[in-house]
Fold this sequence. Notes:
Blueprint: E1 2-6, H1 12-23, E2 28-35, H2 39-48, E3 54-56, E4 69-70, H3 72-82
Parallel strand pairs: 1-2, 2-3, 3-4
Amino acid sequence: MKKVFILGVTGSIGISALKVIDEYSDKLQIVGISAHKNAKKLSDLAKKYKCETVVLTGESKSDFNNISHYGLDSLCNQIEKSNADI
């Protein structure tokens, strides 16, 4: 199984990536997702895909308790920790 960390998951390319993952869920596993500003959509997608690593890069906090990491430095750290293949 390939581990996938999706950057910009709330944008058009991110949504397209999710469609591919839905189709190949037996071969692809989401290990993290990020977005720049759309905290609500990021939170909703984190719940739907049961993501533990959720990063919002354009804000320093949000009202959503499942978003636990903020900023570009945190994003880089989380990508490294995830050992993502893609």
